[in-house]
Amino acid sequence: MTDVTKIDDYLSIGELASMTGIGVHTLRVWEKRYGSPHSQRLPSGHRRYPKAEVPRLRAIASALESGYRPSKVVTATMEELQRLMGLQSFVESKADAHNAGQAEQTSKEMWIESGVKSIHGYDDGALLNGFHEQWGRHGALNFVIHFAAPLLERVGKGWETGELTVSHEHFTSECMVSFLSEKWRQMNIRKQGPTVLITTLPGESYSLGILLCAVVTSVTNFKVIYLGIDNPLEDIITAAKNYQPDILTMSISHVFNPEFAETLLYKIRKELSPKTLMVTGGKGSPRNLPGVTYLTELDKYYDLLVNFNPSTR
Length: 313
Known about the structure:
Elements (H helix, E strand, L loop, with lengths): L3 H4 L2 E2 L1 H8 L3 H11 L5 E2 L5 E4 L3 H12 L4 H4 L4 H18 L1 H24 L3 H15 L1 H22 L4 H23 L6 E5 L8 H12 L3 E6 L4 H11 L3 E5 L6 H14 L5 E5 L11 E2 L3 H9 L7
Parallel strand pairs: 4-5, 4-6, 6-7, 7-8
Antiparallel strand pairs: 1-3, 2-3
Helix pairs in contact: 4-7, 6-7, 7-8, 7-9, 8-9, 8-10, 9-10, 9-11, 10-11, 11-14, 12-13
């Protein structure tokens, strides 16, 4: 524990409480009574707890909210917690729809924390297997809305609090990008419907936003034309003029100042056909820009697509 690189992987009990939502007193009681979470003692005598315990403890907190007793779950592994919640979801689906809904939400939270555990260990096999499992079980749209987007948000919060590092965030992004890229292209093959041109503003370095949009679009009858990230403004305008898409979709991340993004969007909107609907989303996207539809959630983007009527444009 005297190695600096190892110390950086550990937390004080106060930091652990803050990241998990479990009180300091409760954590101390659990450690004394159940031996979990297990701490390491520094040469100074202070105790430190591994950051990799955070996902499991958050899952335990969810299990306790669902009615489990500490003696049942505090020492459980992530896999055991997921099995417990999966069983509860099955039992309650037979008895009470409201409780079943709560159990289903908890089960999703368990999966997200399991994913974060894999991210802590840079275990791409486990993370990608989890992606494939949830995609196969719930379908493309539900995977994006209820699993992929919440996992990415959780990783972002983990980075903000110091639980996860930049390399963890990059690892997650690379795994998600490779998975989503393959999936949406498979669904987009031989599509003959109306077109959606998907891209970003020049200078954008984040592709996950438009990849999530590509998957959601591919669930519908729309054909995706995917330009990727960081295209020159002139190239975006030229592509829009050449292909005349029904919709131009753009994801704008936090790297953009909304005022600068507004200037670029205005230039694009000015050159587009009035019949082309322009849709944006993301933390850097300006709101209330004339001629541009701003959406806050992917499910709202899906609703827009399935209710879109080209004849009214």
